[in-house]
Every structure is written in C-alpha cells, then in structure tokens.
Amino acid sequence: MIDFDDIDLKNFRIENIPNSGYYIRDFISEKEEQELLDKVYTAPKPKWVTLKNRRLQNWGGKPTERGMISEPLPSWLKNSIFSKFSQLAIFDNCLKPKLPNHCLINEYESGQGIMPHEDGPFYYPTVATVSLKSHTILNLYKHRVNIASNMEQNETNLILEPEFSLLLEPRSLLVLQDDLYKTYLHGIEERNSDNLSEKNIMNLSDDMDKNVTLERFTRVSLTYRIVEKVIKVDIFKRNK
C-alpha cells in the first residue's frame, strides 16, 4: 500500500493527456475494498435505483437544479478514504466544503456500461472515483462543443470515437479536474472483456502486458463529488 503522508497528487498525474487527470493504483487495500462492498450490499433495498444498464445508490442527497437537500454521508463512505483525500488535497481548491458531500454508487454487471456523458453543472469540477471488485475501461471523448456542432449538422448517425481511454483497476482512484472534467465526455462501452491493445489507453503501467485480454466482472464504483448548491431545510418547520 502507498504511504500517503507527504505525497503530492501531482506525482500521480497521467502523462500525455490534458492536464488534471490523476490515477492511483491500490488506493485502498483489499480489506478496505471488502468492507466497502459489504456495506454497499447490506444497504436498505430502497437505496437501490435500477436503470436499464446498471443500478445505483445515492448518498448525501439528490442533486437537482434548485440544489441538494443535504444528508450526512455515512461513516463507512468516509473513514480512511476522506483522510487520503485530505492528504492529497484533492478538493482543496473548492471554497467549501473541502471534502465531498455526495457519493454516487454504481453497480455495473459484466457487459453493462454507460453512454458518453458529462456530470453537469451541479458539481464542483472535481470528481474522484474509487473502483471495486472489477476493472473497466473509461473512454474520454472530444470536446462536447465539437460534438454538438457535428450533431447540429444532421450527422444523426455520428459514432463517437474516444480520444483516449483509461484503465480503472480494482481498488484504484481516478481523479478528473478542471478542463478535463468540464470539456470532455466520458463513458463505458458495453463489453464483457477488454483487449488492452485495441484502445489508446494512456495509464498502463510499465509492468503490464499490453496484449492481454481482461474479463469484466461485476464492478462497483464510488463516485465522490461536491454539490455546491445545498438547500438548508429546517426539519422542525417541515414537520409542523
């Protein structure tokens, strides 16, 4: 495991991509991973929302255009993860709070993915994603303004090709900030396996076989963000 004392996030910057992309292998231990999975799968059934290609849990509140009625994050989603976030100063550029107030948990079974999308204006432009149980390949797509322009030209059959891709391994952390967060779409293809040689993967380690095919299993992702607009509700007035 990495000793996070006196370590700078810049040491983990992904080279040869736009600035503000960082990747840390073995961000958490196998023990921490299993403890998180145990909590995810023992959460109350109403916490799960089932979508077409995945299911998810919202923790901290539900972001809307008006803002988010904030709920405290449970301790199991913070614990050692927040101490590492603080040591790496991942969210320190935000005025307040300095740590995430929202966590979206996604479960992707093998063969499931998500269309290219942006996280939107609800969040401060930093996202920190912890991957559990299985790898995936995250694709990053060209500037959304260029994509919108092409679509306006009636290219309705436009197939988006990723500009580059990132391998997200179990127990890893991916941080996307600033322009990389604001101006790129990201998505996951619906596949059961990934041949690493078929993608322009920018964060492969030197000790990894580039010609290997990795089988996908069920993956759980913890996506930490800061919702800047929080609605304060007086629960005593609300219950009158």
Describe the structure concisely for a colleague.
This protein is of the alpha+beta class and 240 residues long. The chain is built from 5 helices and 15 strands. 17% of the residues lie in helices and 28% in strands.
**Terminal CA distance:** 51 Å
Main sheet makeup: 7 strands, antiparallel
**What share of residues are in beta strands?**
25-35%
Average of the residue pLDDT scores: 88
In CATH terms, what is the architecture? Sandwich
Please count the helical segments: 5
Label the overall shape.
globular
What name goes with the CATH superfamily?
Alpha-ketoglutarate-dependent dioxygenase AlkB-like
Number of domains: 1
Give the CATH class: Mainly Beta
The CATH topology turns out to be Jelly Rolls
* Rg calculated over all Cα atoms: 18 Å
Fraction of residues in H or I helices: 10-25%
Strand tally is 15
Which structural class matches the secondary elements? alpha+beta
Contiguous uncertain segments of 5+ residues: 153-157, 235-240
What's the arrangement of strands in the largest beta sheet? 1-10-7-14-5-3-2
Describe the overall structure:
With 240 residues, the chain is an alpha+beta fold. It has one domain (9-238): Alpha-ketoglutarate-dependent dioxygenase AlkB-like (Jelly Rolls, Sandwich), CATH 2.60.120.590. 17% of the residues lie in helices and 28% in strands. The chain has five helices and 15 strands. It has helices at 30-41, 79-88, 144-152, 178-182, 235-238; strands spanning 21-24, 48-50, 55-59, 68-69, 102-108, 114-117, 126-132, 136-141, 164-168, 173-177, 185-188, 193-195, 213-215, 219-225, 230-231. A seven-stranded antiparallel β-sheet has the order 1-10-7-14-5-3-2. A four-stranded antiparallel β-sheet has the order 6-11-8-9, with no helix packed on it. Strands 4-15 form a two-stranded parallel sheet. Strand 2 (48-50) and strand 3 form a beta hairpin. The model is unreliable at 153-157 and 235-240 (pLDDT under 50).
